[in-house]
Amino acid sequence: MHRYRSHTCAALGAAHVGETVRLAGWVHRVRDHGGVLFIDLRDHYGVTQIIADADSPAFRDVERVRAEWVIRIDGVVKARAPELVNPKIPTGEIEVFIRELEVLSEAEELPLPVFGELDYPEETRLKYRFLDLRRDRLHQSIVLRSKVIASIRRRMTDLGFMEYQTPILTASSPEGARDFLVPSRLHPGKFYALPQAPQQFKQLIMVAGFDRYFQIAPCFRDEDPRADRSPGEFYQLDLEMSFVEQEDVFRAIEPLMRGVFEEFGGGRPVTKEFPRIPYRESMLKYGSDKPDLRNPIEMQVVSEHFAGSGFKVFASMLENPGMEIRAIPAPGGGSRAFCDRMNAWAQKQGLPGMGYIFWREEAGALEGAGPLAKNIGPERTEALRLQLGLKAGDAAFFLGGDPAKFVDVAGKARNVIWAELQPNEDWKNEFKFCWIVDFPMYERDPETGKLDFSHNPFSMPQGGLEALNAADPLDVLGYQYDIVCNGVELSSGAIRNHKPEIMYRAFEIVGHDKTFVDEHFGGMIDAFRYGAPPHGGIAPGIDRMVMLLADAENIREVIMFPMNQRAEDLMMGAPAAPTNEQLRELGLRLAPKG
Length: 594
Hints:
Layout: E1 20-32, E2 36-42, E3 47-53, H1 59-64, E4 70-79, E5 94-105, H2 122-127, H3 129-132, H4 136-158, E6 162-163, E7 181-183, E8 191-193, H5 199-207, E9 212-221, E10 232-242, H6 246-264, E11 276-278, H7 279-286, E12 300-301, H8 312-317, E13 324-330, H9 336-348, E14 355-362, E15 365-369, H10 371-388, E16 395-401, H11 403-420, E17 433-437, E18 442-444, E19 451-453, H12 464-470, E20 480-485, E21 488-495, H13 500-509, H14 514-528, E22 535-538, H15 542-549, H16 580-586
Parallel strand pairs: 3-5, 6-9, 11-17
Antiparallel strand pairs: 1-2, 1-4, 2-3, 4-5, 7-8, 9-10, 10-22, 12-13, 13-16, 14-15, 14-16, 17-20, 18-19, 20-21, 21-22
C-alpha cells in the first residue's frame, strides 16, 4: 500500500465497503459523541468521515488530534445506516472505522478558522492566505479558475489558434496606466517595464506571419484596486488574428465565451446571439458602456414633451444648445411612496432630485400624477406615457441638463429602479452578453479642452486616413469593441491600425508628432513598413470571467494570492525595502523621504 494513501477523501463509496484503506489529509473537525469520536478528514478532493470507538486501537491517538493537523489513517470502510447517509458529499454513504493513525504534522492554534465560512477581517485572511485557501468556497473558486483556463486552452486550440509567449521584461508603453519599472544592472540608469498588455508584441506576431495567436497572458499595471480589478497584476486571454474584419473576431470569440459560461455556469441561461450595441446608443439607453442587460429598462430622450411646457425648470434648460431631458421608465413603480424613495436616492447622489410621473386609474380613466404631470398638463403627460409604453401602475423618472454630466447617475438609477421593483433575485440567474461597438476614436478633455484617444490608440479608424483628414475628430469612430456580461466589461478589442501613415495622422490629431510616434512605438512602426496584414484581436479578462462564474463579489476571491487594497502582499511582505548591496549593484540611490 502507498506510504500515505490508497484513495483520496472523495473516492470512497458503497462499492468499497469491507475494504481496508489508507487516507491522508487535514483534520477538518473532531466531534465527540460520548465515547465515539468522529473526524471529518479533508484533502483537495473532498471529505470522508472517520470513526473511532473505545475498542479501536487508535482511540487514544484520535483523542489528541486537533483541527488542521495533518494525519494518515488506516481503517475499514463500512456502510452508514440509511438514516445517517449524507447526500451532500460524494462519500456520504460510507464511513471509515480507524485502526491506525499517524500524525504527519501538528498545527498550532489557528489565527482564523478553516471550518465554516465565517466573516474574518480581510487583512487577516490575506496574511494567512494559505489557511484561507483551505476554506471550501475559496478552494472551489480557485479550482474553478483552473478548470476555466484549461477549457479555454482546449477551445482556442480547436479554433485553430496556437499559444505563444511574449516577453515580460520589455520597454515602457503608454496603455492608460502606470508601468511597473525594473532597473537594469547591466545598463545603469535604464529600466525595463513589465507589460501592461502584450499589445505590441501580439501585433508583431501577426506581422511575422503567425496567423492565429493566443496566450493566457500576465499583465502588470500600477493602478488603484477596485472590487473588479486586482492591483498589480492580472491575467487575460490575449488573442490576435490576421486577415480579419470585426465580425470575424466576433465569430471566433462568441462560441468560446458562450461555451465556457455554459460549461461552468451551473445551468444558468447564456445569451445565444450577442447583440451589437453602438457606444452612443448604449450610453443613451443604459447610461453606461457596460450595460447589464438582465435589466430590460431602456432610457429615452423626451425633450420635445417639455420644450415650451409649464415645467419651467426643464423648459428653460432646453433653450440652451446640447441640453436634453431623458426618461427612465419604471414598470410597476407607480406609487408615490416608491417615487419619493427614488427621489431621496437621487439626492444622496448629489442631484437636487428626479422629476417623476406615475400613472393610475381613476374612475375608469388613466391619469398621470405627481408635480410634473400637473405642470405639463394631461396631453403632454399622455404623450409621454405612449412614447414610453407605460400603463396604470407604472412610473417614469426624468433627468435634465448636459447628458455628459448626468448620464452616470442615470445609469445607476436605472439599475437601482429595476432591482427595487423585483420581488426576488431570480432575474440575476443568467448571463447576458453583448458587444459594445463603434467607440469614438477621440474625446475632449473637459478641463483642458484638448483632444485625446478615447479607447485604444492602435485602432483602425472607420474610414481610414480619409476620415482622419476630412471629418471632425469627435465624429470619427474606431473599429473598437468591448464584450460585456451582466454589467461587467470582460474585454476590449479592436481591428488594428496597420498602416504607418494612418498611425502618424491619428497621433498628430492629439498633438504628437512623427518623432513621438517613432520614439514610443518605433518597433511596431518599423515592422509595418515591411508588409503588415490587416489584423485584430481582443483580450477577455480571466479574473473577471471566473468572478462572474463563481458569483464572487470581489475579484480577490478568485485569485490565489492577491494583494490587499494598498497593493501589499501581507503574506510574503512585498513590497520590501532593497538592501544597500542591491542598490549599489543597480547604481541606484533612494531619495530622502519628505
